[in-house]
Amino acid sequence: PPQKGKKAVEFDFNKYMDSKAMTVNEALNKAIPLRYPQKIYESMRYSLLAGGKRVRPVLCIAACELVGGTEELAIPTACAIEMIHTMSLMHDDLPCIDNDDLRRGKPTNHKIFGEDTAVTAGNALHSYAFEHIAVSTSKTVGADRILRMVSELGRATGSEGVMGGQMVDIASEGDPSIDLQTLEWIHIHKTAMLLECSVVCGAIIGGASEIVIERARRYARCVGLLFQVVDDILDVTKSSDELGKTAGKDLISDKATYPKLMGLEKAKEFSDELLNRAKGELSCFDPVKAAPLLGLADYVAFRQN
Ligand code: GRG
């Protein structure tokens, strides 16, 4: 309920999310058309256009709009981030890593196109993402902002970010002694940094001041970690619902998760705390302008998949 003296902000989050996701899907479809050599583009488009919640590009657009920029300005960067996210999923699904058969409800990329093509098409998506930012935003913003975004994105996805997180995750697989600190390090690097980068790039391209960029970063850091804590909680609660039992599969499997290391109740308390901290970072903004990012934090916290 709204606090006394504060007017409730009317905001249809689902409508916002659907319409932004549709815009992103159209832009992604246009960004990578089918051409020669056909197979690499088919493979890139197969995973890129296979659905997905589009949380990262929508965060990027919402952050840009929060600081006074437009959707149009943020779209190429938002799409580039989704390209990198998609390639990380394609590579994560490979037999040498997670060996998954299904992704976004469809057979994984290597199941359709073969491992050789899935690796190559993933690499192509990674390179193209940077080209897309440089080429498509150079018409609308100055080189200083592009340079900053490219360096944020490179750091967030390289060995100091997602790839570093992936390495520690691989190294600690099946390790029964993994502690909460290591688990958090993995999650921050493997998952939270790209979500954080989405918001930070949105703020940069929208022309935010340093102070606002750092505030957006702190909001996004909480949302990023929240994303993974909720993922871990869902793994437990979803599987217990499916099994009709009280203990879900990830309380008994080898995988280290928040519920496993701190207990389900404490993990839920931690997710509430992260949600409050994320929202607290936005309290200095006009609530109407902050409504999409506040809604996105709730969406991440209360999602069911
Ligand atoms: C170069 C970025 C990069 C990575 C290569 C394979 C690898 C190294 C990293 C793995 C990264 C990974 C799979 C992280 C998990 C992130 C995560 C929580 C994915 C699920 O995200 P959702 O729920 O998925 O947003 P949708 O399908 O909705 O987009």
TrEMBL record:
The protein's name in its UniProt record = Geranyl diphosphate synthase
**BP term (GO), one:** isoprenoid biosynthetic process
Q: Which GO terms describe its cellular component?
A: cytoplasm
Family listed? Belongs to the FPP/GGPP synthase family.
Q: What is the lineage of its organism?
A: Eukaryota, Viridiplantae, Streptophyta, Embryophyta, Tracheophyta
**Domain of life, per lineage:** Eukaryota
State the pathway, as annotated in the record.
Terpene metabolism; Isoprenoid biosynthesis
Provide a Gene Ontology MF annotation, just one: metal ion binding
Names of required cofactors: Mg(2+)
**Magnesium is among the record's keywords:** yes
- Included stretch of the parent chain: 77 to 381 of 381
Protein's organism:
Abies grandis (Grand fir)
Assigned keywords, A-Z: Isoprene biosynthesis, Lyase, Magnesium, Metal-binding, Transferase
